[in-house]
Amino acid sequence: MPFQLNGVPLLSRSTIDRAEEVRADAQALKDGWATAALLRVNRRGQVRFENGALVLDKAIDLSPEPSPAAVFLGIDAGVHVWAVRDNEVTGSLADLRAMASGVDDLTAGLLATANALLNWHDKAGFHGADGTVTTAVKGGWSRVTENGYEEFPRIDPAVICLIHDGGDRVLLARQHSWPHSLFSLLAGFVEAGESLERCVEREMREEVGLDVREIHYLGSQPWPFPRSLMVGFAAVADPDQPLVFSDGEIAEAYWFSRAEVREALAVGDWSARNNGARLLLPGSISIARTIVESWAALD
Question: Is the pLDDT at 183 greater than 90, yes or no?
Fold first, then answer.
């Protein structure tokens, strides 16, 4: 029987009310700005933390009315929350990857949304069709040209797949740029005109040369590096089929037993890379961790 996720991926647990009905209401945004909170994010995706908590400033200190450079993230406990790109932010800084193990659901949602939106705005200043200047509207949730052409935040969908043998073994792979003990699931971007399932088939064949079957959906999570959506799957493959690394992305891949994976999960995650372990797995920020944990928990 296909297995399911035993928990919600970290970046999918957001508790912020996205309040999409407020985005197009300029007066509501203006009224909320007076008491709004503001998240400052630098170009590296870093934000300020104090005593383990996310620091939110007063939006009114940025400008008397909603700034066109800021993006509306939603409403928390009746307070509007915005984010702005600020490369001068100082203090104790951390990014979402570094703080993942201890981040709460609200913070995870705010950072994932802020990074995805701000990363899009950084490169969306001109319309893709005619090169004319675009202006942010609707609290930063779209951009328009002088002629009224509207563009919305770009999301890049990607699949990530746990390949197993239908029994007690799973395939894990390492990219060339990773340290030698770091392994994870295989992933790749969805191409134009391609379904998610066909993308799984193509990417698994391209990266490791395996023909997969019994593909089934597990779950998804935002991945704001810079603005992706990771769609998780599991699939079955024949462990006797030779591995072929044809697209050059994968340095090596091996079949690991469930016992080996459980041992690696007990060690921690990639942050423990100096402990000499043969196998280290992704941290809690990645849906890969949730998928691997769910598979490893099967009897």
Answer: yes
Residue-wise pLDDT for 32-49, tens only, equals 999 999 999 999 999 999
Q: Do you find a cis peptide bond into 226, omega within 30 degrees of 0?
A: yes
Kindly report, residue by residue over 230-278, the tens digit of the pLDDT.
999 999 999 999 999 988 999 999 999 999 999 999 988 877 665 677 8
Pairwise CA distance, residues 95 & 289, whole Å = 19
Cβ atoms 93, 46 nearer than 8 A: yes
Round to whole Å and give the CA distance between 114 and 45: 9
Q: Are the CB atoms for 151 and 125 separated by under 8 Å?
A: no
In angstroms, the CA 193 to CA 161 distance is 20
Closest-CA residue to 115 (of 11, 32, 24): 11
Q: Which residues contact 110 (CB under 8 A, 6 or more apart)?
A: 14, 16, 39, 54, 73, 81, 83
